[in-house]
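input
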Amino acid sequence: MKAPLFKFLSYKYDLEDWEFKKRGLLKRVNEGKFTRPVPKTHESDRRDNNKRYLHYLNELLTPEITEFCEEVDMMFRMVDCWTVRYNRGDYQHAHNHGSIGFSGILYLEFDPSVHQSTCFISPWQEPRYDGTSIRFVEDVKEGSLFIFPSYCLHYNVANESNKTRTVLSFNLDPILPAQQAINKDE
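output
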């Protein structure tokens, strides 16, 4: 019988009222300045957005973040958010978002007929053949939210379409039990 030692859990939600939420997000995102970080493989507002839409995004995702917190039986707070645009030929190299907490990707402008979802690299080797396993997020569409452990390496293949692929990303830090007690007293 199977006796798993470790699990790699990820979470996927599809936002309701997506067209309304998309308009509000795009309005805020498009007010910002996008730059091409080195290496110049994509556009991002991470360095220049000063978290200006962090509160809005947090409010918008309250139902999904609440459900996520219930599923993992722990509280988290959104501490950072940014947008990444991939025009034709743009991609992103393998990276992670740190060693603690979870990260999220919200697919803002995404056409599954021409775009590829984010690709994740398994944190351990495949024991049957000593290889590296990679998986793309399945069944992604605009309004899909994917939450995963921040330490997981992930990347984006080159956008081969003339349609821009846009994602909102964010980090969720755990609120430790001692912090939860302090917050209740305030």
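quick obs: The first strand starts at residue 11 and ends at 14.
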